[in-house]
Amino acid sequence: MRLDAQVGGESALIERIARKAQDFTPLEQIAIVQGIGDDTAVLLADGQTLLWTADMLLEGVHFRLDWIDPRSLGWKSLAVNLSDIAAMGGAPIGALLSMALPPKRTGEWLDAFVEGFVECARACSTALLGGDTNRFEQVVVDVSVLGVVSGRPVLRNGARQGDWILVTGGLGGSKAGLEALQAGETDNIDLTPHFRPVPRLQAGALARELGATAMMDLSDGLAADLPKLLRASGSGAVVYPAQVPVHPVARQWAQAHGLDPALFAIAGGEDYELLITAPPPKAERMLERIPKQTGTALSKIGEVVAEPELWLEYPDGRRESFEIAGWDHFTA
Amino acid sequence: MRLDAQVGGESALIERIARKAQDFTPLEQIAIVQGIGDDTAVLLADGQTLLWTADMLLEGVHFRLDWIDPRSLGWKSLAVNLSDIAAMGGAPIGALLSMALPPKRTGEWLDAFVEGFVECARACSTALLGGDTNRFEQVVVDVSVLGVVSGRPVLRNGARQGDWILVTGGLGGSKAGLEALQAGETDNIDLTPHFRPVPRLQAGALARELGATAMMDLSDGLAADLPKLLRASGSGAVVYPAQVPVHPVARQWAQAHGLDPALFAIAGGEDYELLITAPPPKAERMLERIPKQTGTALSKIGEVVAEPELWLEYPDGRRESFEIAGWDHFTA
Which residue of B41, B46, B91 is in closest CB contact with A96? Predict the structure, then answer.
C-alpha cells in the first residue's frame, strides 16, 4: 500500500480545521510543541511539559446502551483518553468529564457510569476534577485529560529506517467483542477487552525512558494506525503477521468463524495497545524490561524501512503488499 | 429568599457525581486546590496554578442553528469557557475543541465555525490546540480551556460581610436577544450581546490583582448566580436595583414590552459579565482603575451582609425579599 494516499473522514476534517486555525497568538510563556494534528497537544510551560487530549463518545456512533453497561462505559470513556497520554510516555494529572444525558439516565445509571470512570481513574492514579452536565435526548460523553511528562514526549513522527516495530499486549480482542455483539453471539465471548481497555501508562512511560523514537495507541487497529505513524515519520515498514500477538479472545472468535487470526488481529480496532518504534538495541532492552517491570507483554512485529510502502512478510519469505492483502478499506 | 434552599437540576447532578468521585488518588506532585463543584478545576503543579474548565453546547438545548450563524457559534463556544478563566483572574493558555456534526455541516459551515472560534481565540490571545471530530445527527460542541494564574485564583467562596458587590459591563443584553429570537422580533434588536459575549479577561485579572474576595461569571443571570456565590461564601446580600447596569439592548427590549428594565437585567442569563466582591477600599480602587485600564465598565450594585438572605433595596429605602420580588423561579 502506498502511504501517500489521500485519507478521508476525520483526517480531512482535522486538516480543514487546522488550516483555519493556523497563525494564532498564544501566551508568551507557553510554547506549543504540538498543536492540531496529533491526538494530543503538547505544551511547554515553565519547563514542564503538559499533554492535553480530548475524546468525544456518542451514543449510536461509539457505543450502544443496549450493549454496554454504564459502569464499563464510564471506565472506557476515561481509558481511551488515558491511552493517548500513555502513547506519549506521560502520566495523567486529572480529567474533566462533560456529559449530556436524558433524565432517565441521571439516577442509578449515572452513579454506575461515574463508578466505572472513577475505578479507571484510581487504577491509573489519576482523578476526576470537574466537568459539565446537560440534559439531552442522547448520551454524549466528552472527556478531557491533562498529563505531564518529564523530558521529551514521544510523538508519531520519529520512526527511522531500521527501527523495530513493537506492540504491547494482544490485538483483536476488542474487535472480537464488537463482532460478537453485532452478531448477537456473546454467550461464550469475553467482552472485557471491548468494554474495558487498559491504558498502558507504565509501559508507555518506560518505552519513552528507554528511547522510543515514535509511539501511538492503537485505536483504529494496526492496519489503520501503523500507516499514520509511518506517514508522519516519512517511512514504510515490513510487518511479520506470524509475530503479531493475537489476543486469546480474537483467536477464539476468528477460529470459530473461519478467519485468519493474525489478519483479524491486525485489522483490530479499539485495542488501545501501544505501537512503539525504537532502534534494535533499545528495542531489545524494551522487550526484556517492559514485560518484567510493568507486567505488560511486548512483541516485535516488524521493522521500519525507508521506502514509503507497507509489506507483510511471511515465515516462508513470501511478501505481500497491504493492498494485495486486501486491507485498504480499513484505512479509509 | 433563603439561600439554603435545595437547588435542583445541574447542581444536584454535580453533587451526585462528586459523591461518587471523592477520595481519589492523584499524582503526588499535583495539588488539587479545587475539584468538582466550581466551574473550573484549580491545580497546583510545580508552583504554577493551572485553571481548567470545560463546557458542552448542544444543538436544540443551548443553540438553534436556524438562529445562530456558525461564525457566532464558534466565537461563543470558546468565549463561554474563557469567561470561566476570567472569573478566576486567570489568563488562557489554549483550547481543545471536540465536535460532533452532521456531514452537511463539515464544509463551509465548519469553516465559518472555526473562523469564529479562532477570531475569539486571537481576541483573547489564546490558541486552538487540538480536539476531536465526529459525525453525528446533531451538532455538539465541547470546549476545554486551560489557563494559568500567577498567585492565588479567586474562587466563589471568599465574599465577606461588608464587601461591595460589583459587576462588569451591562446586564440583560443577551436575554433580550434570546427573547427577540423566540418571539421572531429580531428586526430592530442587536443580537451581538447574545451571539458574541466578550470574556472579561483583563477586568478579571485586574480585579484579582486588586484584591477581589470572590468572583464568578454571570452565565445564568445575576438572580441565579449571585445566590450561588453567596451560598458558597456563607453570606447574604442587599442589591440596589437602581444601580444595576442595564445593557442598552435590554433597556430597549424591556421598554418595548412594558417590563421593568432593571428587573429584566437582573434576571439576565448568558451575559458572561463578572460578578466581583471586595472590601470597600479595594472595591473603590477597582471602580476607578478597571474601566480606565481595561475599557470595561464596572458598577457597584450592592453589599454583602452576614445573614443568608437576599434583599432588594430601592432608592426610597423600601426593601423586598427576592422571593417577594418573584424571582425565585430563576434560581431553579
Answer: B41
CB distance A130–B26 less than 8 Å?
Answer: no
Q: Is B304 helix (H, G, I), strand (E, B) or coil?
A: strand
Residue A132: its pLDDT value, please? 85
Considering the domain architecture, whether residues A51 and A170 belong to the same structural domain is answered as: no
> What residues of chain A lie within 8 A of the CB of B53, using their CB?
96, 130
How many other CB atoms sit within 10 Å of the CB of residue B229?
25
Q: Residue B75's domain spans which residues?
A: 38-149
Strands B298-305 and B164-168 come out as: antiparallel
> CB contact, 8 Å: B124 with chain A?
no
ipTM over 0.90: no
Enumerate residue ranges in chain A where pLDDT < 70.
1-39, 45-47, 323-332
Bridge-based pairing state of the strands B298-305 and B236-239:
antiparallel
Same domain, A69 and A206: no
Q: Check whether B322 has a pLDDT greater than 80.
A: no
User: B202-222, pLDDT tens digit by residue?
Assistant: 999 999 999 999 999 999 999
Would you call A54 an interface residue with chain B, using a CB distance cutoff of 8 Å?
yes
Cβ atoms A180, A65 nearer than 8 A? no
Q: Which of A57, A68, A59 is nearest to A191 (CA)?
A: A68
- pLDDT of the residue at A27: 47
Same domain (yes/no): B184, B277: yes
Q: Under an 8 A CB cutoff, do A97 and B17 touch?
A: yes
Residues A67 and A185 in one domain: no
Average pLDDT, chain B: 88
pTM, 2 dp: 0.86
pLDDT score of B26: 45
In order of B77, B185, B198, B255, B256, the CA distances from B189 in angstroms are: 22, 8, 18, 13, 11
Q: What is the pLDDT of residue A6?
A: 34
Q: Is B112 on the interface with A (CB under 8 A)?
A: no
Residue A4 in domain? no
B129 in A contact zone (CB under 8 Å): yes
Residue B75 lies in a domain: yes
Residue of B332 and B78 predicted with greater confidence? B78
Question: Which of A:8-37 have CB within 8 Å of B?
Answer: 10, 13-14, 16-17, 20-21, 24-27, 29-30, 32, 35-37
